[in-house]
Amino acid sequence: MAIGITDRRNFKPIARLLGAAAVLGASWAVTRVMTARAQAQNPPQGQFVEVQGLRLHYTVHGDAAHPPLVLLHGNGASAVEMEISGLVAHAARHFRVYVFDRPGYGHSERPDQGHPWTPDAQARLFLDALRALDVQRPLVLGHSWGSMVALSMALAEPQALRALVLVAGYYTPSARLDAPLMGLPALPVIGPLMRHTVSPLLGRLLWPLMLRRIFAPAQVPQAFKQRFPTWMSLRPHTLQASAAESGMMIWEGIKQRRREGALAVPTVVVAGEGDLLVMTRWQSQRLHERLPQTRLHLVPGAGHMVHHTHTQAVMEGLYDAWHMSQPLVATSSSLAEAALAPVVEIGSARAQRAV
C-alpha cells in the first residue's frame, strides 16, 4: 500500500513535465505553421539594399523629382503599418517617400550575434543605406522607437539630414514596469524557448487589448484591423527584435538624453495629447522644453498611433519641418504651396502648435 502511494506521488512531477512538454510542443507547432502562413501571404512588396552585410527591405513612393522623405516605424511594426496609416499616400503627393523595415521587422534581416541593434547602430545602418541609394539630405520621420533612431541619425551626421520629425517618441528616461517584462523573449536560454512557443500565442491573445491601448483615446481604425498582418509581428525573430528594443529602451534613453543638446537639425515634435503608451507631458513636452529650438505639435484626441488617426496633423508637422529648413533649401514644387496652406481641421479639433 505504501509503495503504491509513493509511486503515485513520484508520478505527479513526471506527469506535469509531460504535460508542459506537450503544451510547448503544440505551441511550437502552431507558431511554426502561423509564421510560415504569414510569410507566404505577405511577400516583400519593395526592394532590398545591402549595407553592413545586412539586407534591408524598403518601398519607394512618389515622384523622383520631389524632395526625399524617410519613414522609420516603431517597435513591433513595419513598413506596411506606415502604409496602412495613410501617411505614405499623403506624403507621396509632395515627397519621394522611402519606407524602411527596420532590422528584424517586415522583411529586413537582423543578425543578432555580437551586434546589439541600439538606436546608434541602426542610425549608422540607415545613414549607410541612404548613401547606397543616393538619397541626399532627406527629411526623416521616426515614430515611437523609430524616433530614437531618427534622433540618433541627426546627432551622428546632422549635415546628412534636412529636417527631423519625431512622432510619439521616448526621450525622457522613466521607470517602465513593462520594459523588463517585454524584454524576456530576448534573454538567453529562456528567450528562444518563449518566442518559439508560448510568446506568439500569448501575444495573439493580448493583441486586441494592446491595440486599444496604443490607439486610445481614438478607436482602432477598421483599415488597421483588416490589413495589418498580425502574425508578421509575432514571428519568433520579430519578437526577439521587439523584446531586445524594449529591454534596452530605458538605458538608451539615458544615453541619448546626455547628447540631445547637440541637436543641430531643424526638428518638429508631434504627439497625441492622450498617448497612454508614452506620456506626452513627460516625453514630447519635456523634450521641447529642454530643446526650445524645436517646434511642438500637440494633437487633441490622439494617442500613440497619431499618424493613423490624425494623419493630417502629422503632415502638418512635415510641412512645418520643411519650413524650418527653408534657409537651407530653395522653395519649389507643390510642397511649398502645401506648406503655406492653412491648418486643416481634423474632426472637431485642431492640431495645436507650440513654437
From TrEMBL:
**Its Gene Ontology molecular function terms?**
hydrolase activity
Quick check: keyword Hydrolase in the entry? yes
Q: Which Pfam families match?
A: Abhydrolase_1
The record ties this protein, via InterPro entries, to: AB_hydrolase_1, AB_hydrolase_fold, Epox_hydrolase-like
Q: Which domain of life is it from?
A: Bacteria
> Does the record's keyword annotation contain Acyltransferase?
no
Known PANTHER family for this protein?
Answer: ALPHA_BETA-HYDROLASES SUPERFAMILY PROTEIN, HYDROLASE
- This protein is called what? Alpha/beta hydrolase
